[in-house]
From TrEMBL:
One of its GO terms (biological process) is protein targeting to ER. The lineage of its organism: Eukaryota, Metazoa, Chordata, Craniata, Vertebrata. This is Signal peptidase complex subunit 1. GO terms for cellular component: signal peptidase complex. It holds the Pfam family SPC12. The gene is Spcs1.
């Protein structure tokens, strides 16, 4: 559903943003760029774990699809079809 997709996107972006800020601050304080990368990668892994599987919190508002219409969907036989003849201009 669309509300679930929006929620998943907000969670994903929030975790990435928070982990990037925390990683930058930790990396700046320790003067190690590796810490920044590790913290951002951990935030990415956490956000993937929370948003990629189809958790029930993302399926609360299912879409209502149109019912299947069985009448009028029969294929026409080749003999029933009219052939168009193209004329050259």
């Amino acid at each position: 559903d669309y509300k679930g997709q929006k929620l998943a996107e907000q969670i994903f972006q929030g975790i990435i943003l928070v982990s990037a800020v925390i990683g930058f601050i930790c990396g700046y304080i320790t003067e190690q760029f590796g810490w920044t990368v590790y913290i951002v990668m951990a935030g990415f892994a956490l956000s993937c774990l929370l948003t990629l599987p189809p958790w029930p919190m993302y399926r609360r508002n299912p879409l209502k699809w149109l019912p299947v219409q069985e009448s009028g969907t029969e294929e026409k036989k080749p003999a029933d079809r009219k052939t168009k003849k193209h004329t050259k201009s």
